[in-house]
Amino acid sequence: MNVESSLRSRPRNILRTGAALLFCIALHSIAAADTTARQNAARLNNIGTSLMSQQLLQRAADKFDEAYKADPSLALAEMNKGIALLYLQKLPEAKLALEHSAQQDPNDPHTWYVLGLLYRSQNQLQPGIKAFQHVLALDPSSADSHYFLGSFQIELHDFAAAAVEFRAALALNPLHASAEFGLARALQRQGKTEEARAAFDRFRHLTGAKLATPFSHNYDEEGSLARAEDAPGGTLKAGPMTPVSFSESEIAPKQASDAVTTPHPGSACLIDLDGSGHPGLIVMGHGQEAVRAYRNNGAGTFDLLPPEQTGLKVSGDGVACAVGDFDNDGLPDIAFAMSDRVLLFRNLGHGKFEDVTKAAGIEPANHPSGIIFVDYDHDGDLDLFVTGSAENGSGPNVLWRNNGNKTFTNWTKEEGLSGTGTTSAAILSDLNNDRAVDLLVTGTESAPTFFANPRDGLFKSSPLFADKDLPPTTGVAVFDFNKDGWMDVALIHAGAPGVTLWRNVDGKRFERVPLPIHDATAGWGVAALDIDNDGWLDLAVGIDTAHGPALRILRNLGPGGFQDVTSQVKLDTLKLNSPRSLLAADLNNDAAMGLLIAQQDGSVLALRNHESINHSLRISLKGLADNKSAIGTKVQVFANDMWQKWEVTSPQDIVAGIGSANNATLVRLLWPTGVPQDEIDVSAAKPVVLAELDRRGSSCPTLFAWDGKKFTFVNDVIGAGVVGHWVAPKERDKPRPDEWIKIDGSQLKARDGRLGLRFGEPMEEVNYIDQVRLVAVDHPAGTQVYPNEGFLSEPPFAKTKTILSSEAHLPKGAWDNHGNNVLPQLTGIDHTYVKDFTNLPFAGFANQHTLTLDLGEWTPSNPLRLLLHGYVEYFSASSMYAAWQAGISPVPPYVEAQLPNGSWKRIDNDMGFPAGLARTVVVDLTGKLPPNSHRIRITTNLQIYWDQALIDNGPETPEASPSAQLHQTDLPLVTGNLAFRGYPQQLDGKTPGDLNYNYQRMSRTGPFIPQRGAYTRYGDVTPLLKHVDDEYVIFGTGEDIDLEFNAAAQPPLPHGWVRDYFFYANGFVKDMDFYEASPFTVGAMPFHGMSTYPYPASEHYPEDAKRTAYQLEWNTRFESGDPAASQKYQFDYVPTLSTPDTTGASPTK
Hints:
Strand content: 25-35%
Mean pLDDT: 91
Distance between the termini: 88 Å
Helix content: 10-25%
Number of strands: 66
Number of helices: 15
């Protein structure tokens, strides 16, 4: 080629090269975009799996949908969406998503497994069998698939084939509780009774010993293959840190040089001194002014308040302080640990305190080193726990139990909390997530001591971990750094490595997590805070080094661990002088958490955080049934596709970082008494105060009657049948399992030849219903009939007798405890109650009070009865426990008669009381009232609200004679149908506890957590309700039985007569109360022959073949409530149409 032609071809070559280069760049850009899209899809998918773990199923489904749209090749997201839709009971949509996922990735056993679950929900047996067989072809180790194949064979009545599958499951997983239960059922149906009983016994051992949990229809409870999966590359992690800087200022100067020097560390605590909402500061020191109080002016400046103004005049050697409202008056109080004693100061309001140590009964019991407020016994008041060194050989720790009456009792040995060696600090935390507050105590050992709360009995102590090569621990903080729902532990050590972090592995063990600390010779402080409000909790650690004390800020990167960002936030040049404690605090209410450093010379440094890009939510909690400081409450905040968890250890506000979000989509609370509460779409525009839900702690099953147009509320039933109710130490209640309730004839009308009732659970109890009956009671117009709805506190319980009253009249006079005329309140059933008593802090208790009645003239030869209509604000097991601590026991109503000489004589030690909502108590005074006595006096300390009082002194009518003016007809039970129907709207009257329910407005969700265990299957349960035989219909929260009785069995009504009804129920009830026996489980089942509950080892529920067959055939459901709605802990009432003999209630449009 010549030069000319070469020159002519060069532009074409350059063009070709440029085009190729542009093509490569474009390919690279497309590849980069694809990578970004895949990473974003994986991130969205993994946000969805996190939401699934919190039971936020609809939000999770939306995230999975976003993920699949971002990357249509991510079949995993489509499968996860199908899982979420399955548990939302959106079955057609779930089927589309799962089948689509199976087409994309036919070799993923997860998809086929969930398809099998879906086919089971649709009762498509053959497709379900094929799906699980396909799973086993892909994954032969799937014990769960064998279990479900066995379940399908049970449905097909091939019990031999079912047993083969269940045994295959157990061969792969010997701890498979559901397979063991299924095997017992299959063997029972084959007639192999002894083998069935042996399998059933193994099942009960697995579940009773908590070795395994049976499957339910809830998410994450049907096997690992039904669990939503994370996508590779989508790990949730912290983003880049937004600009953060801290500025230093001195709040409290060092103490005067004449102060006593001491080896004890300096300490400080935060308290709202004047009710302004701004956290003030208490600084512990030495000498004549060992306590200094600083008022927060709201702008980040503090003023020293003289002790003469605050009343906080304390001398000595200050060690530690704690803040909490010990008397539940709404004002934060202060406890001080001095080197030789403990002091308690009560907040009088307006920044004034008084020393109540002596009045509270608190005395020197150890040499303190630390102090905390904690409601260890969940009775609604704050106790004190003091660490230190032993005095008089008693052990280093002291527990001061709050008696609920402003006094405390040393209760250390009784709870097994004395400890050993020397202890330094303590913190409360529910480390094992069993809803009981535990204690973690640091001290001379390498590992802190974990005191597990057993609820009843001695705390169980064990080292937190086995590593014995670490130096002693001196301080502790708990926080959930990895968002797995388990509280992790950060420890301060007296030597290197200074501070350690321990991950809580499902409450079973603790694993050490590396921290970027390499130069520490000891530690002096640790605090968890979100420095940049990105939703990840970071750590501030104080350490000693060879170059002096230092503060390190460790940013939480998520799965990437922690990064030292001290220099980035400009704290690497901080100069410290013998720092001894570290607090996280937002001192100027700018929603950015700063730090306080208390130093041994009494000075306190404030490090203010100037992060201003990300948002945060400030939450203040106010307890109601729990301690007013809300200490012990669990808090979860969901925002910006993230979530965080806290446990409240002080009255200080929570500041939750929410990134760029303007609100928290959900704030979920679990109060110490076990009440869950959801707050939706909580704005971060201003601080929010969340008050504990005003929800009854317990209830009885409720009865509704069809009046021809709708179901109307009748009453609650068998409240006296509660089992395991705490009465006194080592004493439980004696349940009365049966009760008759009157249904006014106007409330119950026939529909299609049947009389319809609904009998259900409006809250969160477990009900064991053995028999129901309905009796038509015919009587002449102008008369009234009563079944005696009163309850005696001790057996022998009164026998039921139908009372016919024709001449009942008002008493001549009635006076309350203060001598006021209350006859107008007692003239009719109008919800105008006698309520002159003062309620005590313990639910159900009041000051001892009287009701005096003048009966007027009466005829001794006739029966003499009181007909008292009213209700009781029932005491819970927890309130019984709290009252016992204060030295208060229930005084059942007793009756005295005034003798002619003016003195009073007791004539009835236990007249009975209404065990629940309004009902009529019949008090038989026949033969008890002395001649010429006209006045009686009823005395009790229970909160009983009387609405009507009548005197019946008419002649006796012999029921057995042919001329009896009373006809009673037992009406046959036609059907009983068990279903979840939701929660009827509770209507509160003007008087506390005067309730009604509206069955026309129902909620599918509520603030309730169901008990775990075996419930009776939904559907027809009629055979179980015929006889008293310990074969119960077992149901729980939001469930009820639709009862239909044969109206045609009623005889013709005589002319001039009227008809009422008596409803009878026999069974037991178990509350979900902290002091109930086994409150969170269905088992162990009560039975009529038991001596008490829980029954001793010498007694047990009948284990004959008949009862075993009953349990295997009927109690096959292992969840209560609506699985599709269980993730929402609040009421959402909607208009609802219900008619008798329907399997559910339908929302109206």
